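Holo prediction. Input below; ligand is zinc ion.
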Amino acid sequence: MSAWAGELALIPGVDWLLNPFSRCLLCNRILFSGQGGLAVPEWIVAQCIETWHCPDCRRAYWHGSHVRRMLAQLQSFAKQGEQARACSGQQQDAGNVVC
Ligand SMILES: [Zn+2]
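Structure of the complex:
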């Protein structure tokens, strides 16, 4: 997947970090801040963890450990893209530079 991400990152306009986790996984609607959907676990409320909900299917979201892992992966993809674009630019500018 990293190789695929590196190739995709070379396409101009791909921004891995543009509004991550802002859409519903089920229906792709933009999430709204706060509760308003299905109930969230009590421990989320007790710890005052920020939540979002889908206005369409009402699914509730919060940032847990899975989001931190996915964000780290997206940051890694973004870095790979930057490195690949920089390397691609060097090859074009210098002609015989090998990255
Ligand atoms: Zn939804």
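The chain has one domain: 2-94. That is the main takeaway for now.
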